[in-house]
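Section 3.1: Structural characterization of target chains.
Under the original work plan, the team committed to producing a structural model for every single-chain target entering the pipeline before any wet-lab resources were allocated. The record below documents one such target. The sequence was received from the expression subgroup and is listed exactly as submitted; it comprises 367 residues.
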Amino acid sequence: MIPRRILAPGVAVVATLLACTSREQRSATTATDSSTPQRIADSAGRVTRRDATAGGCIGVAREPWTPARVGAAAFVVNRATRGMSARVRWALAPDSSALIVVEDPAGVENEAVPDGVLFASERTGRTWRMDSVWSASPAPDWTRVAVGRAAVLGGGEQQVVAPTRWREAERSLAAVAGPQPAITAESLRAHAYPVSGMAVVEGAAATFVADVARDVRDAPIRFVALDGWRVRWSCDGHDVLIGVRPERVQDDAPATVTRRVAVQGGQVGSAPEAASVAWVDGPTLDISVPIAREARALRARSRVVEGKGNRITVRDSTAEGWSVPRDVGPGVPLAVTRHGRFVLAIAPRTDAKQYESPDHAVVYRVP
């Protein structure tokens, strides 16, 4: 299970924003001794902070930046899978410029169900999302996201997954980043594992890395390796640590074994594992557990996001004072990025079936 911490939504967001504000106000160092964090540009011209005293570990660059101009939009986090309930968790980049959200459903007896993940960045104004993942993790510098993309096949009435059915899984995974020699029906079947204790359901995975820092409509995605029950990063961003298969069929089961794979191929590095992502646990979406809809306010740099009466509004700081409220959409706000361009909320579903939760996780993009 991805390590998490539980904090009140408003406290978590405000504390993070205050912390990153004080960090960003510090002057950039120009010293070049071996103990000074160095800024290194990659082939795309992006700058990453590399700390020589931490064994080459990388982090989010502290270079000045301004949020991209954006238009209003709403993005559903999980559009593919439903369970008996779903947990929502999120994390903010160290400078609050980006937000990653996971809606994590689970079946009866907490059986494994793939998740939906969404990444949003104020630096580009763009979002990236993927359905049907077992696990997701931002790189230490928050320029890439690693995902374990799931493939799940049920046995049906016969309670048998025929070998030929794995061609379906091969096609679904090949659609992510193009055909790969390593992704075949035979290889997926060889790497499969049960994901239900009540019926014949088999799962497999492949690990991919999305380059979410590029200001392009579709983030480039690279295939890394088979497997992906859990994914983590080395602290230098060179390798992905891939959990091969679950110990049990439960949704939060740890991996039985973890292997290390270089993202770009070739020899793996020796840098230690990256620090755990500071996930914040949000509400559980369950038909029997109503979402608390009390009034709340979240503060960004020069914007206040308010939730009241199941509606979300924003007010901006101007030379004349606070602007009149602007409507964003329905729901309860949970988190906000640094300048308030992206707002995570729990909003009502319009397509919910009678036995499903009436709510889901949504990210609003706010001009």
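Helices lie at 9-24, 166-177, 185-190.
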